[in-house]
């Protein structure tokens, strides 16, 4: 991981000459993207995020915001944005077909397997193969700081997730700690078949780190972390 002023990047992804990416820190807003020398030629594409499993393939600038939680493109000059505050942002790179995706993985998107849906769509569009895909998992709320109720555990159980590896019982009866990162890591490696070495992570907890934003820590704050990925022109 390396740190610029406004966002964190992953060294392995910095080596890809045609790519820009980053996981924003608190205070870094969409309006500032245009001020970053490496990003100012890009056109930012935002979603109206809904904790869904809806993913869109886009080829050009959009006139209005799409409602969904994942974006795929192969078009240079578009900057795909995912906004988070505890949810897990995932960036995907198809090295072979020069295609990318940005995905918003909260607990709802995760149990609905939005990551798998994104990669299936990339496979359909480009012929993307798991072994040629790199995944980057950004900061999110860690398991110790993410207590959830039984309805969340039930949703993951119904979806076929290995409960023992992603939940830990909390002290309070019928409360659990969810490991969002582990749930998505399981999807990527066990369901989709990405080799573990293709997955990079920034293991920082949004709840614990003051330089990040957490909905659980500051529920009234509307600011979100800006995570982005784009293909250079
Ligand atoms: Zn924490």
Number of helices: 6
Sequence stretches where pLDDT stays below 50 over 5 or more residues: none
Helix/strand order, N-terminal first: EEHEEEEEEEEEHHEEHHEEHEE
Number of strands: 17
Proportion of residues in β-strands: 25-35%
Quote the CATH topology. CNF1/YfiH-like putative cysteine hydrolases
| Portion of residues within helices | 10-25%
Q: Tell me which CATH architecture applies here.
A: 4-Layer Sandwich
Tell the overall outline: globular
CATH class: Alpha Beta
Q: Average pLDDT, to the nearest integer? A: 96
List the strand order in the largest sheet.
Answer: 1-2-3-17-9-4
Biggest β-sheet description: 6 strands, mixed
Category by helix and strand content: alpha+beta
Say which CATH homologous superfamily is assigned.
CNF1/YfiH-like putative cysteine hydrolases
Ligands, ions, cofactors:
zinc ion
Could you characterize the architecture of this molecule?
With 233 residues, the chain is of the alpha+beta class. It has one domain (2-141, 194-231): CNF1/YfiH-like putative cysteine hydrolases (4-Layer Sandwich). Helices cover 21% and strands 30% of the residues. It has six helices and 17 strands. The chain has helices spanning 11-14, 107-111, 114-126, 150-158, 163-166, 180-192; strands spanning 2-3, 7-9, 19-24, 43-45, 47-48, 55-58, 66-67, 70-73, 78-84, 88-94, 99-105, 133-137, 147-148, 167-169, 176-178, 199-201, 225-231. The strands form four sheets. It has a six-stranded mixed β-sheet with strand order 1-2-3-17-9-4. A six-stranded mixed β-sheet has the order 6-8-11-10-12-16. The longest helix has 13 residues, at 114-126. It is globular. It starts with a strand and ends with a strand. The model has no long low-confidence stretch (mean pLDDT 96). It binds zinc ion. The site of zinc ion has 6 residues, from loops.
């Amino acid at each position: 991981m390396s740190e610029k002023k406004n966002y964190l990047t992953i060294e392995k992804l910095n080596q890809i000459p045609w790519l820009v990416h980053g996981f924003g820190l608190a205070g870094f807003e969409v309006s500032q993207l245009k001020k970053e020398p490496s990003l100012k030629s890009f056109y930012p594409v935002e979603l109206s995020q809904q904790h869904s499993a809806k993913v869109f393939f886009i080829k050009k600038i959009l006139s209005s915001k799409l409602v969904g939680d994942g974006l795929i493109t192969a078009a240079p000059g578009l900057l795909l944005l995912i906004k988070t505050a505890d949810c897990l942002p995932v960036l995907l790179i198809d090295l072979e077909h020069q295609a990318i995706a940005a995905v918003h993985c909260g607990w709802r998107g995760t149990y609905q397997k939005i990551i798998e849906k994104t990669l299936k769509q990339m496979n359909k569009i480009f012929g993307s193969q798991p072994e040629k895909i790199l995944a980057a998992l950004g900061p999110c709320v860690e398991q110790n700081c993410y207590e959830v109720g039984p309805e969340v555990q039930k949703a993951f159980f119904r979806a076929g997730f290995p409960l023992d590896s992603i939940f830990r019982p909390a002290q309070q009866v019928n409360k659990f700690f969810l490991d969002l990162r582990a749930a998505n890591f399981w999807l990527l490696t066990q369901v989709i078949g990405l080799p573990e070495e293709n997955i990079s992570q920034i293991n920082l907890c949004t709840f614990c780190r003051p330089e990040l934003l957490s909905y659980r820590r500051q529920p009234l704050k509307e600011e979100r972390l800006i995570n982005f990925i784009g293909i250079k022109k």
